[in-house]
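CORE FACILITY INTAKE
Project code: CF-77B
Contact: R.S. (postdoc)
Sample description: multi-component assembly, two entities in total
Requested service: structural model of the whole complex
Turnaround: standard
Below are the sequence entries exactly as provided by the requester. Do not edit them.
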Amino acid sequence: MRLPVEWITELAPVEASAPEIAHALTMAGLEVEATEQTDHGTVLDIKVTPNRGDCLSVIGVARELAAVYGVALRLPAGIRSSEDEPPDAAAFTAVEIEDPALCPRYAARIVEGIQHGPSPEWMQERLLAAGMRPISAIVDITNYVMLEMGQPLHAFDYHTLRERRIVVRRARQGETLTTLDGVARDLTPEALVIADAERPVALAGVMGGANTEITENTTVMLLESAHFDWRSIRRTSKRLGLTTEASYRFERIVDPAGVVVAADRVCALLEQLGIGSPVAGVVDEYPAPPQTRCLSLRPVRVSRLLGYDVSAEEVTGSLSRLGFGVKDSNGGTLSVTVPTWRPDIQREVDLVEEVGRVLGYDRIPEGLPVGATTQGADSEIAGLAEVLRDRLVGAGLQEVVTHSLMAVSPFDDPATAHERIAIRSALSEELSGLRRSLVPGLLDVLDRNARRGQAPLAFFEIGRIFVARGETHHDETLAVGGAVSGPISPRSWHASGPAPVPFFVVRGLVDAVLGALGCAYRVVRSSDARLHPGRQAAVLVEGRSVGVVGELHPELAERLHVRDRIGIFELNCGELLRVWSSGRAFVGLSPYPAVMRDIAPRVPSSVPYADVLQIVRDAGGPILEDASLVDVFMGPPLPEGVRSLTLSLTLRASDRTLTDAEAERTLEAIRTSLKQNCGAEFPGT
Amino acid sequence: MDDISALVEAAIAELAQARSTADVQAVEVRYLGSKGSLQALLRTVGSLPREERPAFGARVNAARDELTRRVAERRAELLRTERDRQLETETVDVTLPGVPIPAGRVHPLSATVRRLKSVLIGLGFAFVDGPELEDYEHNFAALNYPEEHPALDEQMTFYIDDHRLLRTQTTALQGRIMDHRKPPFRIATVGRCFRYEAVDATHHHTFHQVDAFMVDQGVSLADLKGTLKQFASAMFGGDVHVRFRPDYFPFVEPGVDYAVHWSGRWLELGGAGLIHPNILENFGIDSEIYSGFAFGLGLERIHMIQQGVTDLRLYLENDLRFLRQG
């Protein structure tokens, strides 16, 4: 909201410069976002928080400023109260409120002898400073009073009102109204309208209707000043996508007690400026004025919550300056009457804030909580994520953070398309749904960096993924995913061996990650359509799938500007946490030497290595400490369909030095088992 | 000159001629070996008169000792030369680059999270994770937002359906803690939030927040200010001053917008305040006995301040040139 400084200081006479005033208001909670020098004077751009509808006016801002500086607020003078006048207006019109819950108060005043013309220059200057375009004396005066007092007002051409009366009611199904912006609007019973005897003439609290607009022919005017339920105005405004100065204020609650005085202020200005002659009296429908709110306030509570000692005098003084009534009721507890323009003050703590604001938050000292000590800690799953992060960074991968919101991606598994969670009425395709895998985001990162010629292309992400479970439920899980294309180590002049099969690069990352967590897992062939049919696998922990590893299907990879094959993996951290938290028991270190032996069975290629390893382990028994694959050989002189696997075995007993004979017996058992169980041969032995 | 002296001199001459340890080895075998000259000389002792034998033996032994010593000396000398020559041939251009070690890095936001976690954990806060896909109840209703209130306009929300939404603030965790924990507690959370925002250098529809709150007896705004001072001092370094000004968030009363004075300027960091007694009471916490504070701030903002980054969009773009500056 933009307001000229001179208007504010007219009501709050403070000796201060514009920047000082801006600072004082900001430190009191009315944030001045900008102080601008304009052709119409110095203007403050004030951000009013949604709880402070009362500050959407010059008086409201001036009241805050006056309270901070401790000066008296000067309200506009020369307003004659229509409530003290003879009720002449009642002969002109009648007001009927059908639904007082939606319109608790409606006041109408009549002004005769309307003269048309511009408003005076001083008023136009203030309107321009506030960012409003001067239009005509009548429109300008109602806008001026709205800015001054915060009460939206509307003027009808009295003679266009059928039967010259006002009915505040819900719209009837099928009714339409062309509003002042020229738009014909279909109305529903949810909308509150101002009607005459026959038809809607205004969208209550939002905008007037063209059918009763003030024109140059208008001689008599009916001035509306009313109070509407904020929810009702908000709904109408939202549904029609129409926010006006009036609806914005009504949504933030306008002082119901200020309805008539605002109308009287308009009439006083019309009379002073020779634009019209107000008819005495007001037609004021106000069936159930709300009770004045009265709150108890303990000054000791103020001190306790603000964290420093505040005297009873300071409490009383601060609140009085803001217009609260304060009485000492008993035992030091104050009885505080809340002014009608402060519906946001609901309970004692709200008064504490008011006192704190007026005294200044700078008075709050820097203390530290005392009392029970609490144990700081990280969350369990975040701890697991840190282990994964360390391992993957150590492996040379760059961590990335990608979008949760994304368009439908070709890199998502089409088989699980129904598991995508869509955003309701999404504004764009990019923001239309939630990721159910980290892979599309990782591939996007890979692609973007490849386009810029960056290397290495090796990324991982630890983030939430979302999977729909029916219409109303979902799973949200932390996942870790990676994508690698080309060597992780930068290209260099140092000799390097042939590039490994990309699958085994990502498989190695999965091995590293799961190894870091110390959990047992198996890898089995899978059939994910996104991946190379022969180079993909599911990762199983305790028989449950925890993720996938593989090479991106070459057809899909063609969509990306990446030269090398792309390996990806993704694991569910929630599943990993289950096995990680079970922990590992310490295994004692054997003081006895190990016996190292290699074996090189020739095995039919159709036998998976995992099976060979399992046979070796089973046959090796407890003294087989470790078996690792050190070579795989295929091709001549081996026959087709046969490969030679070289395993390096470590044999060790925990309680004695192994004899050669013992070691040989174990090796023989392993060889025999391999021969029997997977048709292995051992040429030359 | 007798045979012994001649032999020693011949051996010494040969040692001097030796060009390699292998040559020395040959000399050693020739003179000192079991079939060598000295051994052969010793075998002639039988032909000498009995009284001359001890003296002859002693001289042969002395000759062996001398030759042994000289062989060792010459060998050591040649070894040194040979090693020097070998090291010489192994000399490399030390200005060539080394074997590249792959260098992974954590994302700047992760690095920031690590840092702020260590600070807040040190201040006694336990981290708990809340869902990004929240419900209306926790994101708004439990936080004292009146239904349909204009305060909701400030947080344009991504809705999934009538109940589910993407959390607009990590404060949404408060209700999830208070519905099963009794005070005192100090809880913190960090994570991703979403609001409809047009994306520019300072706004994004996806951003990250950290939120911390504590509930105990007698917690005041002074405690909040002091805690923020400690937090900001640890995060930014130096003696940081905290400034409060009033602000409005439905879940706190009094509400605070806080800034810290750092590097000669005031930095607005986020919102804070005392937890609204309505919230405490909704979760069965007696607001006459207990009070609490809460504060939140943007993760990106912390890193932007620390590193002088001026464009918020960089955090989700994942350009390696940015990430490497971590």
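Facility notes:
- The mean pLDDT of chain B is 91.
- Strands of chain B lie at 126-127, 133-135, 164-166, 185-194, 206-217, 241-246, 252-262, 265-275, 290-298.
Invoice: internal transfer
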